[in-house]
TrEMBL record:
GO MF annotations in UniProt: hydrolase activity
Record has Repeat as a keyword: no
Highest taxon, organism lineage: Bacteria
Stretches of the chain forming a coiled coil according to its record: none
Protein name per its UniProtKB record: Metal-dependent hydrolase
The entry's keywords: Hydrolase, Membrane, Transmembrane, Transmembrane helix
Keyword Membrane appears in the UniProt entry: yes
Length: 342
């Protein structure tokens, strides 16, 4: 999720644990801990692909965070011994904030290395990377806690429960769409071996569906509010890797994306795109892997580069209209620019 949401979640979880002891300092510490795992974005792993696939790695691992939380707690208690905030309480608060950060990230489409150093990217895809309906209640609880010493802890506890229920709703909404997708794939004679169902921007009602096929993929939209249960899928070319050997960066990107990749040539550039974030020809994570030389042969770049693309907010009104169940605008939405980066 975005940094504001993670800081707000960290502060609210800390306030909920502190209860009657909730105050501005507790909220500030929680917010700082809530953003701590994302500081790995400051590390440079050498190129654009490595910086993408190694984010949410060691700093998000459920095998690393508990001992790290214990170290932070021990150092705090050595520095600021307190009768109430003893080691066990500080450890519980710290590990709770850090773990809720990484679990929330695992509910987005991006993927989280929950068991680093062991391989594997895990994601539920039941919430978009930015969702105001999730974030705003957290901010409200923080505001109440800052101005109400008596009720701040209770508000934080209530909102933590509410936000958890919202994530549960996102999963239930996704499963409702998944059942509908399964029926549509069978009725339209489309493959069902590799299917992606992920929320569109800022909501858990309108879902994007990607179905992988031989040499192409199918893309469709489905809203919980649709009256017509038929999903209009559009076929798009997948392309293929033109070189005999795959560089290690491409192998890593395949694992990161679970092979939801598209290959295309634009000018003299060979571009590999992650199909999971974005829509149609406006995808969030695209990388230039090779360029054609004067002899017409592909030359791998020493360092992969992000392929620039424009993104805007001007068509969110159309997205809102489709969310409400207007399936007549599906053709326009398949080409609209509504992608956002984390």
């Amino acid at each position: 999720m975005d940094s504001i949401t993670q800081a707000a979640l960290g502060a609210t979880v800390a306030g909920a644990i502190a209860g009657k002891k909730c105050n501005a300092k507790v909220l500030l510490v929680g917010a700082a801990l809530g953003t701590l795992p994302d500081l790995d974005v400051m590390l440079d792993y050498g190129d654009a692909v490595q910086n993408t696939i190694k984010h949410r790695g060691f700093s998000h691992s459920l095998l690393v965070l508990p001992p790290f939380a214990l170290l932070i707690s021990w150092l705090y208690c050595r520095w600021r011994p307190d009768a109430f905030w003893n080691l066990s309480w500080v450890f519980f608060l710290t590990v709770s904030v850090l773990v809720t950060h990484t679990l929330l990230d695992a509910m987005t489409t991006y993927g989280t290395q929950l068991i680093w150093p062991f391989e594997g990217y895990f994601e539920l895809r039941n919430v978009f990377i930015i969702d105001p309906l999730y974030t705003l209640p957290l901010l409200l609880a923080i505001g109440v806690a800052l101005f109400s010493k008596k009720h701040g802890g209770r508000w934080c506890q209530s909102v933590v429960l509410l936000s958890t229920l919202y994530l549960g709703w996102g999963y239930a909404s996704q499963q409702t769409i998944a059942n509908r997708v399964e029926q549509n794939l069978a009725a339209q004679n489309l493959p069902n071996q590799q299917v992606l169902i992920t929320p569109t921007a800022f909501n858990t009602l309108l879902w994007r569906v990607v179905v992988m096929d031989d040499g192409q993929y199918w893309e469709g939209l489905a809203s919980v509010l649709d009256k017509d249960q038929v999903i209009d899928f559009v076929a798009r070319p997948l392309g293929s890797w033109p070189l005999e050997e795959k560089p290690p960066t491409l192998v890593g990107l395949e694992a990161f994306s679970h092979n939801y990749l598209n290959y295309r040539v634009e000018g003299d550039a060979l571009i590999v795109s992650d199909l999971r974030l974005g829509m149609a020809d406006n995808l969030s994570f695209e990388f230039v892997f090779a360029e054609k030389g004067s002899d017409g042969q592909w030359q791998l770049l020493e360092s992969t580069q992000r392929f620039p693309s424009e993104r805007g907010l001007d068509l969110l009104g159309v997205l809102w209209q489709r969310l409400k169940g207007d399936q007549s605008i599906d053709a326009n939405l398949q080409t609209m620019d509504i992608t956002y980066q984390r």
